[in-house]
Amino acid sequence: MSLEGVDVSNTIRVLRSGEIVIMKNRYLLAFGVLLIIATIACNSNSSGSDANSVKLQGAGASFPAPLYTKWFKDFGGAHKDVLVDYQSVGSGSGVKSVIDKTVDFGASDAAMTDEEISRAPGGVQLLPMTAGSIVIAYNLPDVKDLKLPRKVYPEIFLGKIKKWNDPAIAKANPGSKLPDQPINVVVRADSSGTSFVFSKHLSAISPDFDKAVGTNKMPNWPVGTKSKGNEGVTASLMTTPGSIGYIEFGYARSQSVPFAQLENKAGKYVTADTASGQAALASAQLPDNLIVWNSDPEGDSAYPIVTYTWQIFYKKYDAKKAAAIQDLIKYELNEGQKDAEAMGYIPLPANVVAKDLSASSTITAQ
Amino acid sequence: MSSSSSAAPQAGLGLGLVFPVRKDEITQAPTPWQRFLDAAFRKTCYSFAWLTVALVAFIVIRILIAAMPAMRSLGVGFLTGRVWDANAGNFGILAEIWGTLYTSILALIVGSVFGVAAAIFLSEGFLSSTVFVLLKKLNLHLSPIGKNLPDQIERLLKELIELLAAIPSVVYGLWGIFVVIPLIRPYCDWLHTKLGWMPFFSTDLSGPGVLPAVLVLSIMILPTITAISRDALVAVPPKLRMAAYGLGATRWESIFAVILPTASRGIFGGVVLAFGRALGETMALAMLVGNSNQIKLSLFSPANTLAALLANNFPEAGPKEVGILMYAALVLLAITLAVNIVGAFILQRAAQLQAE
């Protein structure tokens, strides 16, 4: 009996200790739940509880993403009630998101095809927001200034010109020490607007390229090592002497990768910079839908591979969002353009800004 | 708090409730509560085990459903085509299948040689005996620190090798691009100019390509092979070793004739596991293999693998392409499954042979 008593008291004590543990756990649980609730509350506080604040969700092209991110940050700083979030998921996904209506606006280097525009609910307005050049970068330690004739570089990317000391290259570069070395072509492995614009340009100047490869976000290149993204291509270029590849101008400049002067339609060798980019943009007139492909620009000083990149807006928004988007567009077209050059993009010419502003009036409240 | 710890010092805090500690009784029939807990615990374990099986089945079925339209429209031609051209609607993954198997098998050969060698080095006391001899020369082998030093150094080295498994794949990829490729370039160029007639060296090193991918991949699978092989070698009964020495075998004779064959099952299991990892490795290979659809024996030319194809194409794939990529994923899954089944089969055969 007494033994049992000890037993029982023991159990009770243990039980009591168990109770304490359980209670502790309960406290912990309650604390955790409180924490979660607090977090959620804080989150909604920062984005939703203020009745006047608006959140704009964007997604699309990765090429202008650094510039867009800076714009949206600065814009958010000046407009406390608007939060713009941009996901750099690629042009294709950007267009897809617009069609699926999972975003407030999209962005694409490849604009949108008529078929895609017809699938977008309620109609869309595309606005060119900035522009950029694509350069042909190379890794030849002994060659300072490489000039590439317009007959030659499509052939390199077709694998028809295989050696650096090919007579066609040597003729354009008298005095350069071109090595007796195979040309190692590096292209993008992933689907990208950069590949789209570059292959569109090559197709425009070379019928052979048009027939063999054509214009695509992910062309079926007949030669070359493929690397992922601008950074992958640049890494391959820098570690492999004798390489050639295409990357964005801003990226090449920030990484100080040497790039070639290209022969333009007028037969002049032009290097990529802001002036030659703007000259190329100025040579083409924007049509009413603001989508233009200037795959082979005219003019002596025009750099040949230049493209606009677009933001895609719906035509109808609710009143608050429509007002915020109008503010955003005005900011991007005025203050925003001043950031472009420093970051390696081409500021829009004044006439394009004016066209954008007038076209943006079609974006209205429901 | 203090009362609870004095009441049941042996039991953990939460366990006191589940398994009450009785000081005065050693055995007793389980209480209904204990029996219930026991059954509940067992049921939970079973259900979790089955849940993993169900999860795998669910993944396979979802991939299968997504791949169905592509399988119907492309058929077997998908497996034998060599072109991947989304523009022209041409899809084939023979080059990727070849690249996947080629890089994995080569990496497995390199990784197994080094991995098993490292395992022998770590398990047969080579390092500790060297350290011991060194300490003895300094007359430190009996000092409090020197006493344990040989074993500690051996353990440190083992941990270091296992640490290789903790390095993220993308770091391996970057390391491959910026360190391995420039490092091997002079040797590759030399091999190409001197021995270019051999199919393995028939092209110039393109930068990213088969060889850099294989080298990095073999380092990535090294910890798996070494850890499992070492465990298998340590598990060889000491009496076998003693018997071999007793029969007059040298150290190397006993390692090669007795210890390695005895541990071969475990070593082989590790190799199969490593092969599975090599087949599915994605990020490092997408960065290093060159992603070029060609079937070549050359170690210096770029190739492609299924995992790299998926990684490169998924982000911007349209609805139709997603189905085709799912088909490719299914093929990769089938290859991995086949490797594991063949591995299990060989292991079983080896066990039977050993038993006879």
User: Order of strands in the sheet with the most strands of chain A?
Assistant: 2-1-3-11-4-8-6-7
Amount of helix of chain B: over 70%
Number of helices of chain A: 14
Which structural class do the helices and strands of chain B define? Answer: mainly alpha
The H-and-E topology of chain B, N to C, reads as HHHHEEHHHHHHHHHH
Strand order of the largest sheet of chain B: 1-2
Record field, number of beta strands of chain B: 2
Unreliable stretches of chain B = 1-13
Q: State the helix count of chain B.
A: 14
Class of secondary structure makeup of chain A: alpha/beta
Compute the average pLDDT of chain B.
86
Kindly list the characteristics that best describe this protein.
heterodimer, A: 366 residues, alpha/beta, eight-stranded mixed β-sheet, three-stranded mixed β-sheet, 19% strand, disordered N terminus, B: 356 residues, mainly alpha, two-stranded antiparallel ribbon, 14 helices, 2 strands, globular
Descriptive overview:
- The complex is a heterodimer of chains A (366) and B (356).
- By secondary structure, chain A is α/β, with parallel strands linked by helices.
- Chain A contains 14 helices and 13 strands.
- Chain A has helices spanning 2-49, 65-78, 91-100, 114-119, 152-158, 167-172, 193-205, 207-212, 229-239, 249-254, 274-282, 319-333, 335-340, 350-359; strands at 54-60, 82-88, 105-108, 124-139, 147-148, 184-188, 225-227, 243-248, 261-263, 269-270, 306-314, 316-317, 364-365.
- In chain A, the strands form 3 sheets. Chain A has an 8-stranded mixed beta sheet.
- The longest helix of chain A is centred in the first third of the chain and has 48 residues, at 2-49.
- The radius of gyration of chain A is 28 Å and the shape is elongated.
- The model of chain A is unreliable at 1-25 and 44-49 (pLDDT under 50).
- In chain B, a hairpin with a 4-residue loop joins β1 and β2.
- In chain B, α3 packs across α14 (319-355), α6 (126-137) packs antiparallel against α7 (144-163) and α8 crosses α9 (210-234).
- Chain B is built from 14 helices and 2 strands, in the order ααααββαααααααααα.
- Chain B has a two-stranded antiparallel ribbon with strand order 1-2.
- Helix content of chain B is 73%, strand content 1%.
- Chain B has helices at residues 2-7, 15-18, 32-74, 77-80, 94-123, 126-137, 144-163, 169-195, 210-234, 238-246, 251-280, 283-288, 306-313, 319-355, and strands at residues 84-85, 90-91.
- Residues 1-13 of chain B have low confidence and may be disordered.
- Chain B is mainly α and 356 residues long.
